[in-house]
Structures are given as C-alpha cells and as structure tokens.
Amino acid sequence: MNHTMHARLRAGDPDAFRELFDSYAGLVYGYAARATGDRSLAEDVVSLCFLEAWRLRDRLRDEGETPRPWLMGIAVNVLRNTARAKRRHERAMARLPPPPTEPDFSDEVAGRLADAEQLAAVKRALDRLPERERQTFMLHVWSGLSYAETAEALGVRLGTVRSRLSRTRKRLRGLADEELRIGARRRGEVPEEHREPTRRRGQQPGDRRLMAVRSIEENRP
C-alpha cells in the first residue's frame, strides 16, 4: 500500500478499509489465536482491531510502504484489553454454581485433542514470559513482522527488539517442553523420553518434540 492508499484510509474510504481487512485480517487472527489459545476469542479480537483501526485512522502516517506495524500495534492493545475482560468474566463465572453434567462427546473430538493440547502448552509457556518479550516474539516470529516493523508496532527501538528476541528464544523452548511434560503427567501419561525400552543409540531426551514446540524454531527468521 502506497501513500495514496494511506490517505484513502485516513479519509475513511470504505474500499480502502475493505482492502486493509482482506490483506491483514488473517495476520491479526493468527496473532490473536496463538496469544489466547481461543479461536472464538481471536475472531473477536479481529473485529475489535479493525473497528479500532477505523476509529484511529487519522493517526496512520505516510512513513513506510505498509500499514502493517500500525495495525498490529492496535492489535496488541486490543488483545491486552480483551484478555483483561476475559479474566474478569472468568472470575465472575467461577462464583456461579457449576452447570449440569453434559453427555460425553469425547469420541467426536479425539482427533482434535492433540492440536489443542499442543497449542495450550505453548500458550502456557508464552504466559510465563514477561509481557514485553511475549509480544515481541509473537509479532516477529509468529506474525512475520520484520525487526523494524515490530519495533514500530511496540514503540521501541530496533536494538530492543533484537535483544528481546534473543532472550525469548533461549527461554521459550525449554518452557514449552516443561509445559508439555506437566500436561502429560496430569493426564497420567509417561513422557516419551522416560519410556522403556531404552532409547535408540545417540538419541537424547526431548529429541522427539510435539509439533507445537518444533514450530517455534521452524518459524524463526
């Protein structure tokens, strides 16, 4: 998108905003889904993000060739506010009586459990990181923003982004592995690296990771 497009967005051109949505709704959704582990909530974040973009359209500057950092900066703030609202809702719901027992539909969802568990494990690992490191990692690694775009979205210096990513990558893999092991123990499963018979020669504990953990390294630039 060039400067003419930026001007159209600031002027509230519906076609320009339709193009903005078509170009970046998937990016915002992916960011929100990974951050929350909740696809329904992620859809709400997308809607709120673009409503906020419409409200703040006069703040879009002409610098740069893309409004992506501006939009993702809005997404960061929307997600933060949405997460707070969700926590307040959950606390309120926790004070209500438990609902009646529902029928067991486990057979219908068995094929989706692994993905949900992996996503939940990585989400818990991310939640253990400082908020600034978590946001930087998600924008750059998972949402594909460049170092400069990430810095612009978060309002920090380029060197700050690089140093945060260096720290985060070192910590996140270990935290994600730990969360997967904790989840396995809670379900009464034995982690594969602790099973018998003896591992193959040369294989180290943790060599076989679940896809959610491997994707952390697969997405690094």
TrEMBL record:
Organism: Streptomyces chisholmiae
SUPFAM superfamilies per the UniProt record, alphabetical: Sigma2 domain of RNA polymerase sigma factors, Sigma3 and sigma4 domains of RNA polymerase sigma factors
Signal peptide: none
Superkingdom as given in the UniProt entry: Bacteria
NCBIfam families: sigma70-ECF
Domain RNA polymerase sigma factor 70 region 4 type, residue spans: 121-172
Alphabetized UniProt keyword annotations: Sigma factor, Transcription, Transcription regulation
InterPro entries: RNA_pol_sigma-70-like, RNA_pol_sigma-70_dom, RNA_pol_sigma70_r2, RNA_pol_sigma70_r4_t2, RNA_pol_sigma_r2, RNA_pol_sigma_r3/r4-like, WH-like_DNA-bd_sf
Key word Transcription regulation present: yes
Spans annotated as Disordered: 184-221
Family: Belongs to the sigma-70 factor family. ECF subfamily.
Name of the protein this chain belongs to: RNA polymerase sigma factor
Coiled coil: none
Domain RNA polymerase sigma-70 region: 20-88
One matching Pfam family: Sigma70_r4_2
Biased composition (Basic and acidic residues): 184-196, 206-221
PANTHER family: RNA POLYMERASE ECF-TYPE SIGMA FACTO, RNA POLYMERASE SIGMA FACTOR RFAY-RELATED
Keyword Cell wall biogenesis/degradation assigned: no
